[in-house]
């Protein structure tokens, strides 16, 4: 059996997913991140149950689609877990809610978040690593920093545009379609 170190927030999330008294962290993670087909193969081959399909230290290499998928599921779960505690509907301004959601996505998808730099419209760049780049793309972009990150985003757009931008961000970092729908429901249930 191998040991891994995890941060407190992730530990609390894993512990909150307990379904049976005495369920181990390995059992919880296996249930949360391993597709049923992989579980059946692993059981059929009598593979040691303590081994995980992904290495948290990235030692398995980039060629494993299953490992990347499992890691993305875990990251998305962490995003949703943190969003549950935020009480977004109590935040009156949509732009503040939206920036908070972007910040939490960034927190759990730091490596993938750089993909947002390619997002743009007809005349505007949506994300940059500095305010001036966004100011140069238009006179009314109103750039704001995504809290906790080096990224800046234009904020002078309506709620529907913010929702569409969030969908694209979530897609860029690897959320599934159902996870994207769940994210939008959390951000703006009044627009569903």
From TrEMBL:
Pfam family, one: SeqA
Keywords: Cytoplasm, DNA replication inhibitor, DNA-binding
Primary subcellular site in the record, as a coarse category: cytoplasm
Domain Negative modulator of initiation of replication SeqA N-terminal: 1-32
Location relative to the cell: Cytoplasm
A GO cellular component entry from the record: cytoplasm
GO-annotated molecular function: DNA binding
GO biological process: negative regulation of DNA-templated DNA replication initiation; regulation of DNA-templated transcription
Alphabetized InterPro entries for the sequence: Arc_rbn_hlx_hlx (IPR013321), Ribbon_hlx_hlx (IPR010985), SeqA (IPR005621), SeqA_DNA-bd_C (IPR026577), SeqA_DNA-bd_C_sf (IPR036835), SeqA_N (IPR033761)
Functional description taken from the UniProt entry: Negative regulator of replication initiation, which contributes to regulation of DNA replication and ensures that replication initiation occurs exactly once per chromosome per cell cycle. Binds to pairs of hemimethylated GATC sequences in the oriC region, thus preventing assembly of replication proteins and re-initiation at newly replicated origins. Repression is relieved when the region becomes fully methylated.
Name of this protein: Negative modulator of initiation of replication
């Amino acid at each position: 059996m191998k040991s891994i170190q995890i941060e407190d927030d992730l530990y609390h999330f894993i512990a909150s997913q307990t379904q049976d008294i005495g369920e181990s962290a390995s059992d919880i993670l296996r249930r949360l991140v391993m597709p049923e087909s992989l579980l059946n193969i692993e059981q059929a081959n009598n593979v040691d149950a303590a081994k995980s399909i992904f290495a948290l230290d990235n030692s398995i290499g980039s060629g494993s689609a299953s490992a990347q998928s499992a890691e993305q599921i875990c990251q998305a779960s962490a995003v949703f877990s943190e969003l549950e505690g935020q009480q977004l509907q109590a935040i009156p301004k949509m732009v503040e809610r939206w920036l908070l959601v972007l910040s939490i996505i960034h927190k759990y998808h730091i490596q993938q978040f750089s993909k947002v730099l390619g997002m743009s419209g007809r005349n505007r760049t949506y994300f940059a690593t500095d305010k001036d780049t966004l100011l140069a793309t238009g006179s009314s972009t109103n750039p704001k920093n995504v809290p906790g990150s080096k990224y800046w985003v234009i904020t002078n757009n309506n709620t529907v545009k913010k929702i569409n931008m969030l969908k694209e961000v979530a897609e860029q970092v690897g959320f599934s379609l159902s996870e994207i729908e769940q994210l939008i429901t959390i951000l703006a249930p009044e627009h569903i």
